[in-house]
Design goal:
The structure holds two protein chains of two kinds. Chain A is mostly beta strands. Chain A has no helices and eleven strands. In chain A, the strands form two sheets. In chain A, strands 2, 4, 5, 9, 10 and 11 form a six-stranded mixed beta sheet that branches. In chain A, strands 1-3-8-7-6 form a five-stranded antiparallel beta sheet, with no helix packed on it. In chain A, 35% of the residues are buried. The chains are: A mainly beta, B mainly beta.
Chain lengths: 113, 112
């Protein structure tokens, strides 16, 4: 079942600007992940943040997690045209022994030169 | 190179036909997954398998079948019972304990 919901659905910015996208989820989690998908391609893992972490960085990516609000944000700094893609958050379900991730519908990011 | 290979990349099917999508991995990962993606939508889980000869239904298993006879292979059959099979199908694996999924490049199925 889909648990994560990204916001906004679509985002258009210019190169050099920062892009922020948000994810909200409904139930408790062990961790939350962000993935990127270029058009017509498979998803690529970007970053994982555990439920006991509040912030994590990876290159130009910054992820925050607020478990009290059941929300996460992904910030891409100094965006480039190559960052144009769809971004998905994914959550696990601690009650699910199969450990299958639940994905949101994604945020479509367009970065124009 | 290590990775996940899905084939075919594009597939056309007439209504009433069964089709099988291939997913092969050489990452030595135990768990494998099949997701379906519709335009503008997230991924929905069809089936997953944590070990050879064992698999579980996901959220939308009706009209699909799978097998896991080898660790490297997890084929998905889209049967004629699937009423709306046109979609993008993604296979994934995960390395036990990390939680990170590795995806293939997908197979796009179109029913004519």
């Amino acid at each position: 079942s889909q648990q994560g919901e990204e916001d906004p659905q679509a985002l258009s910015i210019q190169e050099g600007e920062n892009a922020t996208m948000n994810c909200s989820y409904k139930t408790s989690i062990n961790n939350l992940q962000w993935y990127r998908q270029n058009s017509g391609r498979g998803l690529v893992h970007l970053i994982l943040i555990r439920s006991n972490e509040r912030e994590k960085h990876s290159g130009r990516l910054r992820v925050t997690l607020d478990t009290s609000k059941k929300s996460s944000s992904l910030l891409i700094t100094a965006s480039r045209a190559a960052d144009t893609a769809s971004y998905f958050c994914a959550t696990d379900d601690p009650g699910d022994s199969g450990y299958a991730l639940n994905f949101g519908k994604g945020t479509s990011l367009l970065v124009t030169p | 190179d290590g990775g996940i290979t899905q084939s075919p990349k594009y597939l056309f099917r007439k209504e009433g036909q069964n089709v099988t999508l291939s997913c092969e991995q050489n990452l030595n990962h135990d768990a494998m997954y099949w997701y379906r993606q519709d335009p503008g939508q997230g991924l929905r889980l069809i089936y997953y398998s944590q070990i050879v000869n064992d698999f579980q239904k996901g959220d939308i298993a009706e009209g699909y079948s799978v097998s896991r006879e080898k660790k490297e292979s997890f084929p998905l059959t889209v049967t004629s019972a699937q009423k709306n099979p046109t979609a993008f199908y993604l296979c994934a694996t995960d390395r036990r304990g990390t939680g990170e999924l590795f995806f293939g490049e997908g197979s796009r199925l179109t029913v004519l």
